[in-house]
Please model this.
Amino acid sequence: MAPVKITPKRESLLANIRVQRFTSGKDRSPYFDNFKLEVETGMTVLAALRKIKDEQDGSLTFRAFCRSAICGSCTVRVNGRSVLACSTQLLPILKDFRKGSVTIAPMANLPVLRDLVVDIDPVIDKLAKMHPYLIESPERVPEALERESLMSRDELNAFDYMTDCILCGSCYSACSSVAADPSYAGPLTIAKAYRFSIDVRDSFRGIRDQAAIDQGLWSCVQCRKCIKVCPKDTRPADTIRRTRKLTIDDGIRDTPGSRRAKAYVADIKRFGQVNKPMLPVVVFGTKGWEAIEVAEAALTKQGLEPTRRVCKLPGQEGVEGIFGRVRAIEDEEEQGR
Ligand code: SF4
Ligand code: SF4
Ligand code: FES
Model:
C-alpha cells in the first residue's frame, strides 16, 4: 500500500495583538500597543513577538533563548494565563476567543523592567534561602570519589518528577498567595526545596523544612493554579502538600498551619465538618479569642445567635470509611509517583 501523505490544513487570520508596554524609570504606568499581524497555523506567541519586533517596532522588548521549552526564560501572560511564549501556538487561542484579538502581558507578581521583561531577582532570592542543592550525607556518599552513590528506582521516583522543572516562573506568576502576600516563597521554590530534601543522598532536610516554614509554607491556599499553568506538569501544589506532611513528620508541629491541619482532620472525623467558630483559638491560642469575639459581635448585630459548637452531621458513621479511602488513594499516589 502506498504511504498516505498527510498535508496539514494551513490557516491564517489577521489578528490584533495587544502588547503591554512599560519602561521602568520612564513610564508612569503600563499601557497597551496594538499590532496587526497575519497569524498562521503553527505560529507561536514568540514567533509573533519576533515578527512584530522585526517588522513593526524594534523597541518591543521580551526575553527568550532556547525556543524549545527548556530554558524557561520566555514566560508571558496570554489573555491572563501564564505560558511559555515559545511553545504556545497563537491561532488556537485566537479562534477560541473568536475575537481575532489577543492580549500579551508580562508575568504577574514580579516588577516589570521593560515591556515583557520582568525582574526575577525576588524569586532567585527566595530560592537561595531554600538551599536548592544537595548537601551530601556522609552515610550515603562514598568516601572514594571513583565510587558511585547509587539509589534505587523508588528512591529516584520520589523526586524524579520535580527534576523536570525549568524554573520558568509560570507557577509563581499565577500564584494567588504570592499576589496576596509578596513575602510568600511561591510554588517553584518550595517544590525545589522538596526535590532536594527527599533525596536520600542529602543531609539538609531539617534546615530546608524550617526555611520553607519561614517563607510561608502554610500560606498556600491550594487553589491549584500553579498546577494548571506548569508546562512540565510537575504539579507544584501537590509537592507543597507533601512538604507540609514532611515537616509534620519531621516533628515541626507547633505552627499555625500544622495546628489548623490537625484540627481539620480531628473535627471532620468527629463532626463531619470543621468547627469554624473555634478554629482561631485552636490555631492561634489565646490570641484567637479576639477574632471569635469580633465575629460573635458581628453576628449579634445582625440579629443572629452565635454558637461555639458544631453538631454532628447526619451520616457521620460513613466519614470514617471515606477517611480510609482517601488515605488509601494518597498512599497509592505516593507509590505511583
Ligand atoms: S496552590 Fe498554592 S502555590 Fe499553587 S498557585 Fe495556589 S496558592 Fe500558589
Ligand atoms: S514548577 Fe512548572 S511552572 Fe513552576 S517554574 Fe517549574 S516548570 Fe515552571
Ligand atoms: S525560549 Fe526557552 S523556554 Fe521558551
Summary: The first strand starts at residue 12 and ends at 21. The two ends are 43 Å apart (CA to CA).
